[in-house]
Amino acid sequence: MRPELLDYEILSKAYVWLKNKKHWIKGDFGKGKKYEKTEDIADATATCALGALARAAGISDAACIEDTHACALLCEALPEGYTSVESYNDNPNTRHISILSLFTRAMTKAKKLATAPLRG
């Protein structure tokens, strides 16, 4: 499988998770069933954008997800003036639909990369 296709699948899975507004939070990587802060992203009932990406990729460490190509695609899709997914997610002006749009832009780029002819 082409790595770009895997990026698309991870981004899509995170998008589907975040479509439910109850799954999206600001300020923490993940929250548990009693809405307590949790680092166990697999059991989280709500996540930030990076937490959703980590959950979709099966990665539990926020620092590790930031080193993935899928995260780089999210960063490339950020609106002008933002330097990290975390700062955009946690900005008081960022709404749920803004996060879904961010993922849509990143998925579009991943799909283009995945379907581009192979070189060499």
Topology, please?
Blueprint: H1 3-19, E1 30-31, E2 46-47, H2 49-57, H3 62-65, H4 69-76, H5 85-90, H6 96-115
Antiparallel strand pairs: 1-2
Helix pairs in contact: 1-2, 1-6, 4-6
Notes on the protein architecture:
- The protein is mainly α.
- It has helices spanning 3-19, 49-57, 62-65, 69-76, 85-90, 96-115; strands at residues 30-31, 46-47.
- It has a two-stranded antiparallel sheet.
- The radius of gyration is 14 Å and the shape is globular.
- 35% of the residues are buried.
Brief digest:
The chain has one domain. With 120 residues, the chain is mainly alpha-helical. It has helices spanning 3-19, 49-57, 62-65, 69-76, 85-90, 96-115, and strands at residues 30-31, 46-47.
The percentage helix is 40-55%
Counting H and I runs of at least 4 residues, what is the number of helices? 6
Mean pLDDT: 91
- Total E-strand runs: 2
Name the strands of the widest sheet in spatial order: 1-2
For the record, the count of structural domains works out to: 1
Query: DSSP strand (E) fraction?
Result: under 5%
Order of helices and strands: HEEHHHHH
Coarse shape: globular
Radius of gyration: 14 Å
